[in-house]
Design brief:
The complex is a heterodimer of chains A (about 250) and B (about 280). Chain A has one domain (about 55-245): Orthogonal Bundle (MetI-like fold). Chain A contains 10 helices and no strands. Chain A has helices spanning about 5-25, 35-50, 50-85, 85-100, 105-115, 120-140, 145-155, 160-195, 200-210, 215-245. By secondary structure, chain B is an alpha/beta fold. Chain B has 2 domains: about 1-95 and about 175-280, Rossmann fold; about 105-175, no CATH class. The radius of gyration of chain B is 19 Å and the shape is globular. The termini of chain B are far apart. Classes of the chains: A mainly alpha (about 250), B alpha/beta (about 280). The interface of A and B includes residues 155 and 156 of A.
């Protein structure tokens, strides 16, 4: 953390430059309101009046719900694909076909099946999070060293116990990487889905504020997303550092 | 008095029992890059209980493959391996394989004591938590890692990691320990210390050790019998009884003329084969 102060200083300098340029009307103060104005409306919409907070909660709910479902389905499926070649042969083609489709392209289809409510957004987040988790789990399992597998065999471990005691922990770094990638994607997809359906969530809030020309609130929403992404990643890296403390390499936060 | 004197002088090995492992007409064929390769074409040998048997031979002769066949980790193409009179087909309980690549065999997510406990969990289940913990600590101590119980493998040197792997194997009380070049990746001094450790363990607990090494002097120092394999398809080129007194000492034993004579005899036959192999354009 200590070595990162130049980066934080740069952010402050840029914000100050923005503030100055807007105050001096060097940039259009309607499109780029002064930073102090943005922070003021941020405070208001987040704390005093709470309209941003009210929209933030459903977004967080669907991000974590979709992510959790993806982990619950993706990790076991990835373990099965990595350990049982029949499952791999069955699922690999369909995975390779669905995976390259940008997750936002599912949204129109999902609306047809699930409407524009919360279920649809959770589903889209789930689908988008699934593939990084699935593929990283599968890749992690395939990458387990044969010597480690043979070590389990020489100790007479059953296949089930080898899965729990050897394959899962050995693949854990890769699984966690998949989860971290997914969390970033979850945020993007949730916001896009909310913008398209336009009824709730921070994505809806940002678009709505832009439409009714409450530009400071729009920026407040965007800053909130930035901060949220940063916090989620920060917390996840801490968790990763804890679960992978046996690797002995300090994780960059 | 005289009995004690004889014991301390150390007979070759008073503990040799009936054959525990019998290799009968073992055949092993591989396909390497589409080329069929015969490693063994009817190899037979018999290993007595309580032996410290080393397998030496030129590189690529199938020393490790023989160990893998005996362990049941790899199936023989033909012939059979008997362990206590029972045919080996799959990893047999009672035999533990110690891999050359200890860094890949140790569980990096488990601490020293947890790695050792893994061996215990996989074999004996009827212990209370306290008894299990005491037993793990005993084996950690046996390999000289007292005080390092809660260290993760990344915090240990290579020699210490190999000690963990040995403790994890010993806690299962295996009848046979199969060691595949276990000390080839550690420095010379650590190797000498680990050799003494393994000898001490072999003399303390009833275990048969099969030891693969490319280092002839290591084999002579440790074993009571050495099998020297020829190049593939390997047959037994030499079967030498090592009649140096136990307990052996890194300095005293290695200083004996007989030690050098034995090493010389084994080394020259392996070296000549290795050299002949290098003239071969295939190598």
């Amino acid at each position: 953390m200590k070595k990162r102060w130049p980066g934080f200083l740069l952010i402050l300098v840029l914000l100050a430059a923005w503030e100055g340029a807007s105050a001096a009307h060097l940039i259009d103060s309607l499109t780029f309101p002064r930073v102090t104005v943005i922070f003021e409306s941020w405070w208001r919409s987040l704390v005093t009046q709470g309209e941003l907070t009210r929209q933030l909660m459903p977004s967080l709910g669907r991000i974590f719900m979709g992510f959790a479902l993806a982990a619950i389905v993706g990790v076991p499926l990835g373990l099965l694909m990595g350990t049982i070649s029949m499952v791999y042969r069955l699922l690999e083609p369909i995975t390779e076909f669905i995976r390259p489709i940008p997750s936002s392209a599912y949204i129109p289809v999902a609306i047809l099946f699930l409407g524009i409510g919360n279920e649809m957004k959770v589903f889209v987040v789930f689908l988008a999070c699934m593939f990084p988790i699935l593929l990283n789990t599968y890749g992690g399992v395939r990458g387990v060293d044969p010597v480690l597998i043979d070590t389990g065999r020489t100790f007479g471990l059953s296949r089930t116990r080898a899965l729990w005691q050897i394959i899962l922990p050995a693949a854990l770094p890769s699984i966690l990487t998949g989860m971290r990638i997914s969390l970033g994607i979850a945020l993007i997809v949730a916001v896009v889905a909310e913008m398209i359906t336009g009824n709730s969530g921070i994505g809806y809030f940002i678009l709505d504020m832009q439409r009714i020309f409450r530009v400071p609130e729009m920026f407040a929403g965007i800053f909130t997303l930035g901060l949220l992404g940063f916090l989620i990643n920060f917390i996840f890296l801490r968790l990763e550092g804890y679960f992978l403390r046996w690797r002995g390499t300090s994780v960059e936060t | 008095m005289s009995e004690i004197a004889t014991a301390s002088a150390g007979a070759v090995d008073p503990r040799l029992g009936p054959p525990i492992i019998e290799v009968r007409q073992a055949v092993k064929r591989f396909t390497v890059n589409g080329q069929p390769m015969t490693v063994f074409d009817g190899l037979s040998c018999s290993i007595e209980q309580g032996s410290f048997l080393s397998i030496v031979g030129p590189s690529g002769c199938g020393k490790s493959t023989l160990l893998k066949l005996i362990s049941g980790l790899e199936p023989a193409t033909d012939g059979e391996i008997l362990f206590n009179g029972n045919r080996v087909d799959g990893p047999a309980s009672g035999m533990i394989y110690v891999f050359q690549q200890y860094t890949k065999s140790i569980f990096p997510w488990r601490t020293v004591i947890e790695n050792v406990a893994f061996g215990l969990q996989s074999h004996r289940k009827k212990l209370s938590a306290k008894e299990a913990d005491d037993l793990c600590r005993h084996y950690v101590k046996l390999v000289g890692l007292e005080g390092y119980e809660n260290f993760y493998p990344y915090q240990l040197s290579g020699g210490m990691q190999q000690r963990v792997v040995i403790a994890r194997a010993l806690i299962c009380e295996p009848e046979v320990l199969l060691m595949d070049e276990p000390f080839s990746a550690v420095d010379a001094l650590t190797r000498a210390i680990l050799q003494e450790l393994v000898l001490k363990i072999w003399q303390t607990i009833p275990v048969t050790i099969l030891f693969v090494t490319h280092d002839v002097e290591e084999a002579v120092f440790l074993s009571n019998r050495i099998i020297s394999l020829s190049k593939a398809p390997a047959r037994i080129n030499d079967d030498v009884s090592i009649d140096l007194a136990y307990p052996r000492d890194q300095i005293a034993t290695r200083g004996q003329d007989h030690f050098h004579a034995l090493s010389q005899r084994l080394f020259s036959s392996i070296f000549l084969q290795e050299k002949a192999g290098h003239a071969d354009p295939q190598v």
